[in-house]
Amino acid sequence: MASQRLSPRKAVGFLRRLVPRVRPYRGQLLVTLVMLVVSTAVGLAFPLVVRQLLDAAFLAANGARLNRVALGLLLLFAFQAVINFGQSYLMAGVSERVIADLRKDLFGHLALQPPGFFSMRRVGELSSRLAADPAMIQQVLRFGVPELLRQGLFLIGALTLVTLTNPRLTLVTLTAIPLAILMGWLFGRRVRRVSTSIQDTLAVAIARAEQVFTQIRVVQSFTREAWEAERFAVDINKTRDLGLTRGLERASLTGVVTFTAFGAVVLVLWEGGRLVLAGALTPGTLVAFLLYAVTISGAITSLAGFWSQLQESAGAAQRIFELLDHPHELIEHGNARPLPEPVRGVVRYQDVWFRYGEGQPWVLKGIDADIREGSTVALVGSSGAGKSTLVSLLPRFFDAQKGLVCVDGNDVREVQLEDLRRAIGIVPQEPMLFAGSVRENLLYGNAEASEMEMIEAARAAYAHDFVSGLPKGYDELVGERGVTLSAGQRQRIAIARVMLKRPRLLILDEASSSLDAESERLVQDALERLMSRCTTLVIAHRLSTVIRADRILVLEGGFIEDHGTHSELLGRSEVYARLYRSQFDDAMAYVEPGSRVEVISKKD
């Protein structure tokens, strides 16, 4: 996401959108505000007490009064410490809860986006947005906003008190404010732009690192480790250089504002000293005035620093709300009805047209197909014919631009999405396991399944024996994407997971096409058990799957070119015959004489 320049109004506007998220905690915030006001009042009272202390020591020479004032100061600071503790703790609690809610909302919003949303974005960048940007906003909520209020109250209170004490010296003090405000505005804008660039560059670097870690075998097999390290280093060096630039801008802002503010203190000291020498001001009053002047200078410096922090956080808020404002491409209407039970598994495609974006070519063109309950339908066709797209419309990973997709006579767009997807099981060609235990991966299919049900599903998928042989059995960790298991073992766990779900509709992307002979036999047997309970759509790559299907749909250029059984299509469809011959030739090149595939092929 490219960084954009934010005007002060837009910067405050993005942060204002956090107000509804803070509102549920307004009771705690009110208590925090009261504590902050009390703490500020104690701070403002300090110079007045110091004046009493010094005048008692140097003018009245009253030791008892000096002791009382000193003891009063200690009690005052003890009280202020307790108040500051309570205010800091309450504000920390509010900021933690607000940011936790923001992260949950952001994750929930992203999780509901269709697969196409993630195919156009780096997942690592989204992860960075989920972690880094809310953390930046949290710093403003926890420290920035209380400090803004505290320093604002200090500034107003100190200006009021010094004006009442000596208006002439107040004018000297105020000379620092216009220049400090100007410097804060100029440097704050520059800091915000650099900070936004840092976040964008760092997000790209983290996304690249995540991609390397998840594809580490590919990286190492091509010996690209050094090349990837160099690419990562380029991004990190750019982030470092931008960070140094930001540090320079911040340091310049701090230096200029500090010099300006405390230069005013020197002027106050000089002018006040002249008044003391002239007898127009007591030493205690001068010291009190100096303390107020220092308070004013410190408040100006802090407010200037807060402005740059506000700009950084506004950039982070902008990126977060860009994601939160991204509409859900698949909308579940408020009047969506439950999918009637029991689901029979009758599927109908009626004049379905689909493309992946406006101006893109049509992937599906007027598809019509009726799939009977309990039947197995194979989808065949050359690469890009639309097979995967056609089955993706069933669980509503995408919606057709024209036509209807129906389950048991119900338009999938008019039923509750959770009900629809609960009725559908998917076994992809490359199974994806989570980096947890075998048990956690199996129960992902049905969190309420009992131990016995889980084991029975594993037995049915021919996974129980090898899982039992693992050091920790079902509690064995499988690593990121299940890398500690073989392809066949991962696939059998994926099948067992779908079995626990007990779907009525099953989508298979030829789940055994990349396995060795032994694993393929076990996976095929497990799939046949699963398919016996379901209406099944198979994206077919293997001859055996095509031959055993009840019906075959031949896709070509987004159309259904023909449909029927294997024998029927072999006799009348040139497209199917060509695909069959190419697969037959490829298969026979790797089949030993007398094998099962050769016997099946010769029969046809």
Structural overview:
65% of the residues lie in helices and 9% in strands. It has three domains: 317 residues, ABC transporter type 1, transmembrane domain (ABC transporter transmembrane region fold, Up-down Bundle); 190 residues, Rossmann fold (3-Layer(aba) Sandwich), CATH 3.40.50; 71 residues, P-loop containing nucleotide triphosphate hydrolases (Rossmann fold). It is α/β, with parallel strands linked by helices and 604 residues long. The N terminus and C terminus are likely disordered. The relative contact order is 0.08.
> What is the CA-CA span between the terminal residues?
56 Å
User: Which CATH architecture of the largest domain is right?
Assistant: Up-down Bundle
CATH superfamily of the largest domain: ABC transporter type 1, transmembrane domain
Number of domains: 3
* CATH top-level class of the largest domain: Mainly Alpha
Number of helices: 22
Mean pLDDT across all amino acids: 78
Précis, in short:
With 604 residues, the protein is α/β, with parallel strands linked by helices. Helix content is 65%, strand content 9%. It folds into three domains: 8-324, ABC transporter transmembrane region fold (Up-down Bundle), CATH 1.20.1560.10; 336-423 and 503-604, Rossmann fold; 432-502, Rossmann fold, CATH 3.40.50.300.
